[in-house]
Amino acid sequence: MQIHAPAKLNLCLYLGPRREDGLHQLCSLFEPLALGDLIEVREAAEDEVICAGVDGENLALRALRALREHGWERPPLRIEIEKRTPVAAGLGGGSADAAAVLRLAAGEVTDLEQIAAALGADVPSQLTPALSLVRGAGERVEALPEPKRHAVVLLPGGGGLSTADVFAEADRLGLGRGEEELDELARRLRSAAGAGTSPLAYPELLVNDLEPAARSLRPEIGEALDGLRDAGAPHALLTGSGPTAFGLFESLAEARAAPAVLARDDAIVCEAGTAPDMKAGSSL
User: Fold this and answer.
1) Which residue out of 8, 37, 97, 209 is catalytically annotated?
2) What is the pLDDT of residues 175-211, one digit of tens each?
3) Structural domain containing residue 263
4) How many domains does the chain have?
5) Which CATH number belongs to the domain containing residue 139 in this structure?
């Protein structure tokens, strides 16, 4: 079996107060991308996850172990991940891989949402990749209507910007909003995105509160955002905690013209808004 694990964008990210568990309250719009990792799953002598080029314990392996701990009794699996989503780039690649593994047990293990939340803040939204309003620290996910097709140009900037460092810098800078403001922003986002339009129809809501903190740690993010605007992006933004900058475009054809202006070899062009088919091949 082959599984597609779509990357995700934060179309906006509003930062709220720090919670008692150390995480921050958030309000965000997540959307899937056509870009994503390709995961091959087959039966094996023992469980293993292979992901070339990624050091340390893989989140997908933690997901598989969590399924076993919750009683999943399918035969041992070899899971091989072909990384296509840039690593540590704010695009949720590791979370998407973990969610793809959890989807293998859909209908066989209860409480997949709780298992996903325990693995990481971005994992619950990736269980069913779709345009979603995300609240809490990422565990509250509300699916929204499919948006009008649009495209993005991504500038990953080499990845490697620590999420924890960005949030710590945001706290140092005194960034953030109150709970009531987050609730009002969620209402406005639900209304705007619920119409099924392109995100470019509500650019005033596409804000990332973490951008000043990320730019403080990685000033070249500002250059990437300026470059995307100069290349014709009607709106450019940071996704997640960065360092990936992205430009929104009305069409794939318009997005494909941007890299020539940017003159950067790390630009990625892809469609956004709808996750591709996530499974192919025979069942296990």
Assistant:
1) 8
2) 999 999 999 999 999 999 999 999 999 999 999 999 9
3) 2-280
4) 1
5) 3.30.230.10
